[in-house]
Automatic annotation (TrEMBL), chain A:
The keyword Oxidoreductase applies. The keyword Methyltransferase does not apply. The gene is porA. One of its GO terms (biological process) is response to oxidative stress. It comes from Sulfurimonas hongkongensis. It comes from the Bacteria. This is 2-ketoisovalerate ferredoxin oxidoreductase subunit alpha. Keywords: Oxidoreductase. GO terms for molecular function: oxidoreductase activity, acting on the aldehyde or oxo group of donors. InterPro entries: PFOR_II, Pyruvate:ferred/Flavod_OxRd, Pyrv_Fd/Flavodoxin_OxRdtase_N, THDP-binding, Transketo_C/PFOR_II. Residues 270-371 form the Pyruvate:ferredoxin oxidoreductase core domain. Pfam families: PFOR_II, POR_N. Gene3D superfamilies: 3.40.50.920, 3.40.50.970.
From TrEMBL, chain B:
Its cofactor is [4Fe-4S] cluster. This is Ferredoxin. GO terms for molecular function: 4 iron, 4 sulfur cluster binding; metal ion binding; oxidoreductase activity, acting on the aldehyde or oxo group of donors, iron-sulfur protein as acceptor. It comes from the Bacteria. Residues 51-80, 81-112 form the 4Fe-4S ferredoxin-type domain. The keyword Cytoplasm does not apply. Pfam families: Fer4_21. The keyword Translocase does not apply. It comes from Sulfurimonas hongkongensis. PANTHER family: PYRUVATE SYNTHASE SUBUNIT PORD. SUPFAM superfamilies: 4Fe-4S ferredoxins (SSF54862).
Length: 407, 130
């Protein structure tokens, strides 16, 4: 051990970015190729500082764009290293071309995406546009609701994606500024325990194995491409969620913190329920508690793993709910919205009588207030009482001017 | 390639150039290497060719220019002696003919269906200095 250990207190006050940076330090990342972008800059800044202060044995590659950052990560991962990087919004959009390469080459890269709105108009605040942009790229996508999650889920992402059966890259999402720049108490794990949880990196078909030369990133035409994609999809659909469940259980043994693929809050006896992502889940939980005091049986479903989408778990969580609201924090641009679509898809052909309505909120960092959520739960209860959806299927909440609704 | 199912290959669309372990690959001649069936060496690109080079030993001075310049490593040379052309990997680009310094050239491009012996028998004579 040529590097120094860091003595952490049991509870440290960290924002999401620094929590992620500490997780990268404790995993002993070999290579970080990164290009800074608000709001994810402090993650790689933190890593670079730990590297400079001799807390890590690794390599920091400074590149000229996010496209090159992900390309560098792919090269380093193919060479046989533990690799991570971080990005947001426009940088993520520039990475997209290489994201597909990374997942197709089955390289276990961990990408910390701090969600931020996509231009235009240019905006540095948090919404889920970039998370929705990456959802077809073949990556595992895990969502953190608070700095504590951002810290823990990095370890989980490494454990899952580096498993030799899975070998798929993973993204850890946190909300820009809402999570990434808000300092909270984070219960830490000691350096040794964290590193042992993730384990030594075991390369697979690495290019630096000179005795078994391999070609990575080959070309396949109509003769083989379909088979490779089918296999990738098959592994995503059948192997990833059980593995994540297993790693969540291991992590509970280590830290006492329980994560679930679908985080349910008081859904057992609930009539109305909102489904949302990111930091809004915590706001919604608080409001749901208050609604129960008013006599409305409210519940909240937060989705922890966005890709592969946990259809069975969602179906199970929502089977007895009477009215569901899907809260999308991304401009749907001519569609009902991703969450609305996915939830409608997962509940289709089941016995549920649930009424589903979609809401679009919080674009470009617009806050989701408790008052809005109170109104939303009241509308859902009105749907339950009427036995049909009384509102339009898609409503915009928190937008200026006259009420905006479609469908 | 043998018929395989969608789940019967290594993940990540990666290929192995050699079967098993290798050592001292640089000191082993191509024909002695343990190439796997899906390496570039085993794959033939001969059908890309429209015109082919024909090598005439009589005029060759073994300068190795064609061996240096061939982009597909298709010039076979042993002990600094030019032996011939690897017709499985030659794409018919004509660079070897371009760089050949002899007069007349000891490599010339002919249509793919040309007969090698007949063409060598009617090889052009020396270009007159102008």
């Amino acid at each position: 051990m040529a590097f120094d250990k860091m003595e952490l207190r049991d509870i440290e006050v960290w924002d999401g970015n620094f929590a992620a940076a500490q997780a990268l330090r404790q995993c002993q990342i070999d290579v970080v190729a990164a290009y800074p972008i608000t709001p994810s800059t402090p993650i790689v800044e933190g890593y670079a500082k730990f590297l400079a202060d001799n807390y890590i044995e690794g390599e920091f590659v400074m590149v000229e764009s996010e496209h090159a950052a992900m390309s560098g990560c792919i090269g380093a991962a193919a060479a046989g290293g533990r690799v991570a990087t971080a990005t947001s919004s426009q940088g993520f959009a520039l990475m997209v071309e290489t994201l597909y390469q990374a997942s197709g080459m089955r390289l276990p890269i961990v990408l910390n995406v701090v969600n931020r709105a996509l231009a235009s108009p240019l905006n540095v605040n948090g919404d889920h546009s970039d998370m929705y942009l990456g959802r077809d790229s073949g990556w595992i996508q895990i969502d953190a609701y608070c700095p504590q999650d951002a810290y823990d889920l990095n370890f989980i992402a490494f454990r899952v994606s580096e498993d030799h059966d899975i070998r798929l890259p993973a993204m850890v999402h946190q909300d820009g500024f809402m999570t990434s720049h808000t300092a909270q108490g984070v219960t830490t794990i000691s350096d040794d325990a964290a590193y042992n949880f993730v384990g030594d990196y075991k390369p697979m078909n690495d290019m630096l194995d000179f005795e078994h030369p391999v070609t990575h990133g080959v070309q396949t035409e109509e003769d083989w491409h379909f088979e490779h994609k089918a296999r990738q999809h098959n592994d995503l659909m059948t192997k990833v969620l059980p593995k994540i469940e297993e790693v969540f259980k291991d992590f509970e043994k280590l830290s006492g913190r329980r994560y679930n693929i679908v985080e349910e809050y008081e859904t057992k006896d609930a009539d109305v329920c909102v489904v949302c992502l990111g930091s809004s889940v915590e706001t919604a939980r608080e409001v749901a508690g208050e609604m129960r005091e008013k006599g409305i049986k409210a519940g909240v479903v937060g989705i922890r793993v966005i890709r592969p989408f946990p259809f069975a778990q969602i179906r199970d969580a929502l089977k007895d709910i009477k009215a569901i609201a899907a809260l999308d924090r991304s401009s749907p641009n001519g569609a009902p919205g991703m969450l609305f679509n996915e939830i409608a898809g997962s509940l289709f052909n089941t016995d549920t009588k649930a009424l589903l309505s979609g809401y679009v909120y919080g674009l470009g960092g617009r806050d989701l207030t408790k008052a809005q959520l109170v109104d939303l739960f009241t509308e859902l209860q009105a749907n339950v009482d009427a036995g049909k959806v009384t509102t339009p299927l898609q409503q915009f909440i928190g937008v200026r001017g006259p009420k905006l609704s479609y469908l | 390639m043998a018929k395989k199912g969608w789940d019967e290959f290594e993940i990540g669309a990666m290929l192995r150039s050699f079967d098993g372990k290798i050592d001292d690959i640089a000191g082993t001649r191509q024909e002695d290497r343990d190439y796997s069936e899906n390496s570039s060496y085993t794959a033939s690109v001969a059908d890309w060719r429209l015109i082919k080079p024909i090598f005439n030993k009589d005029y060759c001075i073994d300068c190795q220019f064609c061996w240096v310049y061939c982009p597909d490593v298709s010039i076979i040379s042993r002990d600094k002696k030019m032996i011939g052309i690897d017709m499985d990997h030659c794409k018919g680009c004509g660079i070897c003919v371009e760089v050949c310094p002899t007069n007349p050239k000891s490599l010339l491009m002919f249509p793919e269906q040309a007969d090698e012996e007949a063409e060598i028998a009617s090889w052009p004579t020396k270009d007159e200095e102008k």
